[in-house]
Amino acid sequence: MHFKSLISLCLTLLLVHSVHAQEATPSFSGTTLNTGQQIDLDGFKGKVVLVDFWASWCPPCLASLPAYNKMRQEIGTSDFEIIAINVDEDTEDGLKFLEKHPVDYPVLADPTGQIGIPWGIRTLPRSFLLDRDGKLITTYKSFKKGDEVKIQQQITALLEQ
Amino acid sequence: MIFRTLKPVLGLLLYFGLQNLAYAATCSCAGVPLLASIDTSAKEKGQLFITYNAENHQISDLVSGSQDVPDETDRDRHSFSQVLSASYAMTDRWSVSALVSYVRHTRDIGSSFLGKTTSSGIGDSVLLLRYTPLFITPFSRHEVSLGLGSRIPTGDDDYGDLFILSEDMQPSTGAFGGILWTSYSYAFNQAATLQFNTSANYTYNGVNEREYRFGHEFNFAMGLGHSIGTRFSYSAAVRYRSTRPDRRLGFEIPNTGGKWVDFIPAVSYAVTDKFQLGLSGRIPVARNLNGVLQFTTSYAYAFSASYAF
Question: The pTM is what?
Answer without folding.
Answer: 0.79
